[in-house]
Write a structure and sequence with these properties.
CATH superfamily of the largest domain: SH3 Domains
Number of strands: 13
Radius of gyration: 15 Å
Strand content: 35-45%
Number of domains: 2
CATH architecture of the largest domain: Roll
Order of helices and strands: EEEEEEEEEEEEE
Structural class: mainly beta
Largest sheet: 5 strands, antiparallel
CATH topology of the largest domain: SH3 type barrels
CATH class of the largest domain: Mainly Beta
Distance between the termini: 26 Å
């Protein structure tokens, strides 16, 4: 398994064990075969980065979806932004984010970014225009 964030001790914390292998960490890419051993649990959409078609790579082996994504780290623009429950104007606001807040983008479609605030914050949608490009 390759660790996606070398040197980050939090990235090496176990999130679950799978197969006969060692514990899988939050940012490691599994090298073995993953299999579900029963029904997938229903996770709260506001708190877990998983939806019907896509999930955070750390949920591989826990949630069955067609695709898994490695997050792209971005920051909320200086003016701040509302984190929305859906990728459309007028959707419910889950949280008001200040400028500079870390937002881990998992998908970008139609001008909307879907992802998670930090590593364990709320999950939702932001307009792509309100995210800063990653620097250096």
């Amino acid at each position: 398994m390759d660790n996606l964030i070398p040197g980050d001790p939090a990235a090496n914390r176990p999130i679950f064990a799978f197969g006969g292998n060692t514990d899988l960490t939050a940012t490691a890419i599994p090298s073995g075969q993953l299999a579900l051993k029963g029904p997938a649990e229903k996770l709260d959409a506001a708190h877990w980065p998983v939806r019907g078609d896509l999930a955070h790579i750390r949920l591989a082996g826990r949630c069955f979806v067609p695709h898994y994504a490695v997050p792209m780290e971005r920051r909320v623009a200086a003016g701040g932004a509302d984190l929305l429950a859906d990728g459309k104007e007028g959707a419910d606001v889950r949280e008001v984010l200040g400028g500079g807040t870390l937002f881990n983008v998992l998908d970008i479609t139609g001008g909307w970014a879907w992802g998670q605030v930090g590593e364990d914050g709320f999950v939702g949608y932001l307009p792509v225009a309100l995210l800063e490009e990653r620097r250096g």
